[in-house]
Design a protein that fits this description.
Blueprint (H helix, E strand, L loop, with lengths): L1 H69 L3 H13 L2 H29 L2 H19 L17 H14 L3 H13 L2 H22 L1 H6 L2 H22 L1
Helix pairs in contact: 1-6, 1-7, 2-3, 2-5, 2-7, 3-5, 3-6, 3-7, 4-6, 4-9, 6-7
Length: 241
Amino acid sequence: MPLNRQSATIMRLFTQYVHIFSKTRRKNKKFADKYQFLLSQNARFAQARAGTIGAMEAFFVSAGIVTLAEMGDKTQLLALVLALRFRKPWPIVLGILVATLANHGLAGAVGVWVTEFAGPLYLRWFLAVSFIGMAVWMLIPDSIEDDESASVPRWGVFGTTVVAFFLAEMGDKTQFATVMLTAKYQTYLGVVAGTTLGMMLADAPVVWLGERMTRLVPMRIVHIASALVFAALGIVALVTG
């Protein structure tokens, strides 16, 4: 009898141990699942935060570079000509905004395409050579042809501004800069929004203030500063890849 009671006690203790072990294991599993969930959420948050910071950096850098590049550019001269001719600032500014969004939207799409189809080495050299080429291009003064300012406004001031500005921006410094910046930062919306803001910061005051705006800012100094910025970006792209 004592042996049977001892065996029963051992079995009861063993059963309790198994029960406690199973319960602890389930708790540990729940804790591990919660821990993995928190880790995944933290990783997603960090990724989203990094993406937001990258987009903000692309936005501000693009806005600053294009504002400098647009000073004294052909399209800024076109904005001045349209302002002096039509004397209607709001339709001209809205036309510049629409034309810039369309043009730089296409340029940003080209930048995304370059990023997707070019390997890291080719992309590195493309950016370096392009930025340094832009630095040299910035030192060449722009001019606007007479026929660009003599067109009859068949579609009104707004329509004429959209068409003239879109065509003038094709192959321009700021359009090419949009392609390169999109390829560099790989954030389409951030770059296009930044370059569009840069265009408006440079062109809208000219529409309202007219020729006085171009006389207030020494264009040669602005062009040299822009060239230095583009040259620095080219060197960074070459060194860091």
